[in-house]
Amino acid sequence: MQALSSEQLDHLVALRHALHQSPEVSGEEAQTAERIVAELTKLGADRLWRGLGGHGVAAEFSGREEGPTVLLRCELDGLPIREISDLPYKSTIPGKGHLCGHDGHMVSMLGVATRLTTRPQKGRVILLFQPAEETGAGAQAVIDDPRWPEIRPDFSFAYHNVPGRPLGEVGLRKGPGNCASRGMQILLEGKSSHAAAPEDGVSPGPAMAALMAGLPELSCGTIGDEAFSLATLTHAHLGEPTFGIAPADGELRVTLRSMTNERMDALMQEALHRVEKHALGLSVDILWHDVFRAVVNDVEATSIARTAAGALGQRCREMPTPMRWSEDFGRFGDDGAKAALLYLGAGENHPQLHNPDYDFPDALVPVAVDLFCQIVQDMLGSEAQ
Ligand SMILES: [Zn+2]
Ligand SMILES: [Zn+2]
């Protein structure tokens, strides 16, 4: 596989800026998917799937000989956050921005597609442009698509850029790599009454006060501990903004986070138990949202990535602890693939993910392209050899 020419790299960076200007949030990535399909068609993919689990797109590049399927995944979605920057290519969509770097992840995979004009010798490469990562719904939706059996990989790789680490550093972490997390919406309903006679009603107020203090107490340990858990209160609402009514309804939102899926199951039970204890006399409805399973990186897949980074002379770091933030990439491991998420440094003084002034560093594109092409070369060989 030939290295990217400077014209090809310029094209990818220009495309990244165009994607950056027109971010689409989870589940609404129709235009982004169109652009990706146009690029993949130009590059002559052997097979294309569209509309996977929503707006997902996958492209196959196949070798002549039998061999494993290696899937490389990136994400299509931006965020419902207003971008604050002076960039010439800043978001033109009010209240939406590519502030997690998925625009950069996408063009990295298009860079791999560019180099795959030289096909692998055996097996096949699937490039997956996954929808709805930010809500935790997209990976599972792709896996639930009836066409997934045509794609199902033996190995899956992806990367996320990591602000705060040196640009281009390859972070590796076998075992738990990203936390499990989920949103817990607690709806409490009692009975309204005149503010002059609160005893005639049932207010959710006392239960809410107890839970606002009590649920965050379920947090324990640090990210270095297997038992790490974190419960963060994110929203509270009680009754209406009046003075005449003792309230009937209340709502709390709490985000639960843990290093392992097992710990998450226990944390959910503890949280439910607290709600039960404090919500006596109220009717309670619990809804779960944004469910992310933990990313658990496969040992063999991680070691393949380590070898590839080593062959390129890229600087590697064995990460001592997992990332606190969640990633729905864990679903591909749950589905049976040997999966590894790689953590590529985005620069030490770079704004953090989801900050309003975050922007993906273009200098990371060739680093990522080289790394994933080396993984493909090591696993599947190259037609030209
Ligand atoms: Zn994000
Ligand atoms: Zn992201």
TrEMBL record:
Its cofactor is Mn(2+). It holds the Pfam family Peptidase_M20. InterPro entries: Amidohydrolase (IPR017439), Bact_exopeptidase_dim_dom (IPR036264), Peptidase_M20 (IPR002933), Peptidase_M20_dimer (IPR011650). GO terms for molecular function: hydrolase activity; metal ion binding. Residues 182-279 form the Peptidase M20 dimerisation domain. Keywords: Hydrolase, Manganese, Metal-binding. Mn(2+) binds at C100, H102, E134, H160, H354. The Mn(2+) ion enhances activity. Gene3D superfamilies: 3.30.70.360, Zn peptidases. This is Amidohydrolase.
